[in-house]
Design a protein that fits this description.
Elements (H helix, E strand, L loop, with lengths): L1 H28 L3 H7 L11 H10 L2 H7 L2 H24 L6 H27 L4 H25 L6 H7 L1
Helix pairs in contact: 2-5, 4-7, 5-6, 5-7, 6-7
Length: 171
């Protein structure tokens, strides 16, 4: 009797999960470009970043200075959220355009996953201890991948000239 209840509960949990996922995908697929742009967080200062800045900053700064330059946990979380939004923007462009480069789309997906992993590792280590070099390594790896992802996203949107100016202004 108990085994049958466990089976029913497990099947019900799986069914609820699949319904929840399906609703999430449907909601994501009906989003407009403007709603995606509104979800980007441009308020944390990523504009002054670039590959050259990151390399220079990483080579001569202390861990605390590095942590402050990316605005600490707030900057890392903004990178995490923006990478998710940029991935949804790439999917939007792929759904609404025939000329999307599939390799570029795969690279964007890979960047988003790597950014999320680096950010979560850095935030996990930060929650346990003080700012040190290993936290900064993960944080700067996420920052450099974020910069590359922004450049790839711009490249992807160049094929859809109407979408590009809005994206650049939001970043």
């Amino acid at each position: 009797m108990i085994f049958a209840l466990i089976q029913v509960a497990a099947i019900a949990a799986v069914a609820v999960y699949f319904c929840w996922r399906r609703a999430g995908v449907r909601c994501r697929n009906t989003q407009s470009w403007e709603s995606l742009l509104a979800r980007l967080r441009p308020d944390w200062g990523a504009r002054e970043w670039g590959g050259h800045f990151l390399e220079e900053e990483e080579s001569r700064a202390t861990p605390e200075e590095k942590w402050q330059s990316i605005q600490g946990a707030q900057g890392l979380w903004a990178m995490y959220e923006n990478s998710c939004v940029m991935l949804e923007m790439a999917d939007y462009a792929a759904r609404n355009s025939d000329s999307v480069d599939r390799d570029l789309l795969a690279a964007l997906r890979s960047d988003a996953v790597q950014i999320r992993v680096c950010v979560l590792m850095a935030l996990g280590r930060y929650a346990v201890g003080q700012v040190n070099e290993s936290i900064c390594v993960n944080a700067f790896r996420a920052a450099s991948m974020y910069t590359e992802m922004s450049l790839r996203m711009t490249e992807l949107l160049q094929g859809n000239a109407g979408l590009l100016p809005d994206f650049v202004a939001a970043m």
